[in-house]
Amino acid sequence: MKKMIIAFALIALPVAFLSAQDRGDNASVTTKRGHAILPAAGDFALGIEATPFLYYAGNMLNGNTGNSAPSFDGFKETLYGKYFLTDKSAVRGRLAFDFGTDQLAKTVGQDDLDPLNPDKTVVDYRFKNKCEVDLYVGYEMRRGYRRLQGFYGAEAHLGFNNNGTSYKYGNQMTVGNQSPSSWNFEADAEAKMNSRPVDIKDGLGFRAGVNGFVGVEYFVAPKISLGGELGVDLYANLNKIGTVTNESYNASAGAVVQRAKRAAGSENNIHFETVTSGSLFVLFHF
């Protein structure tokens, strides 16, 4: 991240000079065949993170014989969108989200032994559920010279997250089996557990703020650009306290019960801070 910030700090230096040297309208910048290179008023733009493409290109240059096509696995992607109000200004939006479930399965011994199959096993599962959304909406102004364009502006940010973890066990907790064999996912080992988690809910989180940004784009082909930007955010973050639900045998009730309690170490907080961010992207205009 430090290298990326330094690189774009150096790239962004010419933007101030470009502001004073902006020449003509975007329609006047064309290829030898007369095709417009830069976006114009009324154009839309859609884009994605450029990191996978740069990773692929880097592997080509370092002689990686196992290099494969660009993959977005392992990158939290951001989608970019713009609408050009004029040749030199646009409204823009960015959207990042992560919805999904990660399942982990572990095999443990079956407590109710089968005389014909004493090595019989059951499976315990852990499900990590993720729900995260971040939306940015803003306004940008543009200056530049031919294929090299600088831009700057501000945007508003709104996001939320609601994550959690749930468990499913092969050996049921009963009156006759008050400490069933279970996989302790925290310790990563099988154990006899008289109390085990069944559901963990992280506190619902909200965040909102404003962001100032500056960046550069270079149009590698008509209406196709590769660029990057740096931003400084001022935002508030609100997190509610989560809950942990465990199941255990209650002798006085003579039954298995589930109890929910507040998550240890969780807190409800609001704070403001400045955060420096950076991104690389590829945009397609039409």
Describe what this molecule looks like in 3D.
Helices cover 10% and strands 56% of the residues. The chain has 286 residues and is mostly beta strands. It has three helices and 14 strands. It has an eight-stranded antiparallel β-barrel with strand order 1-2-3-4-5-10-11-14. The protein has one domain. Strand 12 and strand 13 form a beta hairpin. Mean pLDDT is 82; it is low at 1-21 and 69-75.
Features:
56% strand; 3 helices; eight-stranded antiparallel barrel; mainly beta; 286 residues; two-stranded antiparallel sheet; disordered N terminus
User: What structural category characterises the helix and strand content?
Assistant: mainly beta
Distance between the termini: 31 Å
Mean pLDDT comes to 82
Poorly predicted tracts of residues:
1-21, 69-75
Shape: elongated
Helix content: 10-25%
The helix count comes to: 3
* H/E element order: HHEHEEEEEEEEEEEEE
Question: What gyration radius follows from the Cα positions, in whole Å?
Answer: 27 Å
Number of domains: 1
The largest sheet has its strands arranged as 1-2-3-4-5-10-11-14
